[in-house]
Amino acid sequence: MQLNDKASIRRALAAATCTLLGSASQASHAEGSDEKWRVDTSVLYYSEQDRVTVVEPVVFLRKATGEDSFINFRLIYDTMSGASANGATATNTAQTFTSPSGTSTYTTPANQTPLHKFTDQRIALAVEWDKPYDRLSRTIYGINASTENDYRSIGASATRLRDYNDKLTTLTLGFSGSYENVMPIGGAPVPMQLMSTIVAPPPGGGGEDDGGGESGKTKLVADAIVGITQVLTRRTLTQLNYSLGYSTGYLTDPYKVVSVVDTTGATVDYRFESRPDTRLRQSLYWKTAYHFDHDVVHFSYRYFWDDWGIRAHTVDLHYRMELWKGIYLQPHMRYGTQSAASFYTHSLLDTGPLPAYASADYRLGELTTTSYGLKLGIPVGRSSEINLRVESITQSGNGHPADAIGIQQNYDLFPTINSTVAQITYTGRF
Amino acid sequence: MTLRSALLSLAVLALPLLQACTLEPVQPWDRDLLAEDKMQLVPDPVENFIDEHIYFSKEGASGGQGIGGGGCGCN
Amino acid sequence: MTLHRRAGYWEGTFEAMASPCSVLAEVDSAAEARRLLNLARAEALRIEATFSRYRQDNILHRINTSTGQPIEVDDETALLLDYAAQCHDLSQGRFDITSGILRRVWHFDGSDRIPSAEAVAALLPWIGWEKVAWRRPHITLPAGMEIDLGGIGKEYAVGRSALLLEAETRASLLINFGGDLFSTGARADGRGWRVGLDDPTATGNASAGEIEIRRGGVATSGDARRYLLKDGIRYGHILDPRTGWPVPGAPRSVTVVADTCLEAGMLATFAMLMGHDAEKFLVDQQVTHHIIRG
Question: Are residues C41 and C88 in the same domain?
């Protein structure tokens, strides 16, 4: 080595010093990584304007169980209440809806977008074991389970990560599967069934109102992911993932309907929606983190496509601004566009051929989601933190499509949904 | 926002990656910044998990970052 | 040994390696501060005892009186010899632990007594690391040659003390052995320790400035008190082992801030050895530095 190669002397000297003091591993300990526990407790408040409200406390626990092994716990409790759109469109008369079992009905006043009220509670639990497999790789095994009033799931996952190039490159391969069970309240509808054909059961007898027994529906989901994470420069880290997912079973939303209209655009009936019983999903996801002198920016882009015809682009940006003594402010922006599923339709005609599948669930439609948020983080003690964040999410679509018929043209067939998120989190390390 | 303007923004934001075109390997003693919590690809696991859940229940597209988060009856 | 409470931290001092040493610890209890101070002092004295050339009972003495026979050394000495060998390579021979014998002819006492060219030349055959056979764990020094670890001893002691103390506490510490110092991390308020720089061109102890250090080492190589002055030419105490004479154009003082004290010290020494090119060298190495010429 020459004394006149730029900065290489310093690097070589640093390496020589590390060898002499044997301090490479000590340095990382000084950064505080000999803390065994990390706890994140958080409460989320989510509210859609005039619609659903969710309060969700969450606890994440991470414990170091060995030199390089960890165990992660996740406990989530959700309470949801309010109403969500049932797929029918607003029209000039009051509307009445019946559950598939015929035992309950609800109504919507004229000129309002029909909403289906519900309350639900959900508990979800997950455990992960994260440990080295050999000198260069690690595996993460996980199991998870959740339960709600009308839904249960259980699943497992396994991921292998392997380092290359002196740990500058990491390849990831993961698989997961889950078994899900839906027990719709009010019974599971016959796909595309006309609501007018539902008969209320005779008093004292008839259909169950809790969707139990033979109307419990199952769903199997399998996912795989392959990814590469690469350190590009001292300040830059990037990741590219390809994911493949396959779902089979009952994929329909049992509470959603599609308005059936006549040639004047007046709603004459409803059909319960029907979705295909398989779905193949794929996505390409790219993320980069870049460290300025003090601030850090995270940027990601995802392209999603599936065999239901949905194509979606999502761009996400977080910019963490270090303010003072560890206090930071992090603005966030997310923008997503999605094309409609092939069987998405805002309504069906009462005459003509019946499609095999149809859904008016706005979440399968041509949709744009824009989110803006701000997070404030305040350090607490030596290595803990409290942070607060608020987000505003707006979802919109075409409320006046060209194929709106007659009086439908007077209504917003795709109302914009505004939601607010507020979350407070405490992260403790000890 | 059209696809073209989305791609343009993508290109602009990818500029830091151009710095990496020399791709000289980053030496172990230069990995100080990369070791910081805020430089991890998922710096805040709780926020990330919650956001993934929110958007899973509000959109048709989902996932991409990882697998095995668990299901819910919300979609 | 003393221990005083200052604003927000404890300051402990002791004498070792012929220098005033101190440990500043941001801990609450005096007992804790005393414990840390004792650990640092014990380590400094241990290193001094093991590697000082002034003692007759250590490995260094055995090596220097080996008259050409191979000496087996322990792991710590081996690591230090490896380090010295690497620094010799990196500096193209300018850093050389066998150059200590030049002190027989050079006495930097501020006077004008410089040695004759012949006196210096007579020592050159016994200087040169390339003449030493170092194959771990045996070192063979040709008879008449000596090694001196004084050039890295203090920085090494700072590094070792820091390792020991960091294993005992997460509090922020500033370890300072005679001006070679290391800070283990930012203080509780997020700021660093304020360290004053010596200005050898000023009379008295006037400071050349101040730096704030969170985690890292600071070392100074300089002739604040050791030089010769003849016919208006200043002879700094950094000698080029290849010629036996002081490096021409050496700065009065070089201070470097780096990740460790050892690194800072060696970079400062290298810079001094570069003479006129000291500034360019440190700029190229992209380290925070402060050079005083005069």
Answer: no
Determine the average pLDDT of the residues in C49-63.
90
Cα gap A317→A328, rounded to integer Å: 16
Q: What are A21-55's pLDDT values in tens digits?
A: 875 433 333 333 456 889 999 999 999 998 999 99
CATH code of residue A48: 2.40.160.40
Q: CB C159 to CB A4 under 8 A?
A: no
Cβ contact, residue pair C90, A9, below 8 Å: yes
In a domain, B18, yes or no: no
Query: DSSP labels for chain C?
Result: -EEEEETTEEEEEEEETTEEEEEEE--S-HHHHHHHHHHHHHHHHHHHHHH-TT-SSSHHHHHHT-TT-EEE--HHHHHHHHHHHHHHHHTTTSS-TTGGGGGGT---SSSS-PPPHHHHHHHGGG--GGGSEEETTEEEPPTT-----HHHHHHHHHHHHHHHHHTT--S-EEEEETTEEEEES--TTS--EEEEEE-TTSSTT-EEEEEEESEEEEEEEE-SS-EEEETTEEEES-EETTTTEEPTT--SEEEEEESSHHHHHHHHHHHHHTGGGHHHHHHHTT-EEEEE--
Domain membership of residue B51 as a residue range: 27-61
Q: Report the chain C residue with the minimal C-alpha distance to residue A23.
A: C163
Q: Which chain A residues have a beta carbon less than 8 Å from that of B28?
A: 15, 24, 166
Q: Is C283 on the interface with A (CB under 8 A)?
A: no
Please report, for the domain that includes residue C136, its CATH number: 1.10.3980.10
Domains of chain C: total: 2
Respond yes or no on whether ipTM tops 0.90. no
Considering only CB atoms, which chain A residues are within 8 Å of B54?
46, 393, 421
Domain containing residue A378: 39-429
Residue A72 lies in a domain: yes
The domain in which residue C38 lies consists of 1-53+151-191
Are C284 and A6 a contacting pair at CB < 8 A? yes
For residue A5, being part of any structural domain is answered with no
What pLDDT was estimated at residue A28? 33
How far is Cα A96 from Cα A116, in angstroms, rounded to an integer?
11
Bridge partners, A316 (sequence order) = A300, A334
Distance CA A341, CA A343 (A): 5
d(CA A298, nearest CA chain C) in Å: 25
Q: Is residue B47 part of a domain?
A: yes
Q: What is the mean pLDDT of residues B44-53?
A: 92
pLDDT band of C164, cuts 50, 70, 90: very high
Q: Domain tally for chain B?
A: 1
> Do C65 and C47 share a structural domain?
no
Distances (CA, A) of A187 to A81, A272, C196: 20, 12, 79
- Strand partners for C253: C222, C292
Residue A249 is predicted with a pLDDT of 95
The stretch A126-133 carries a mean pLDDT of 93
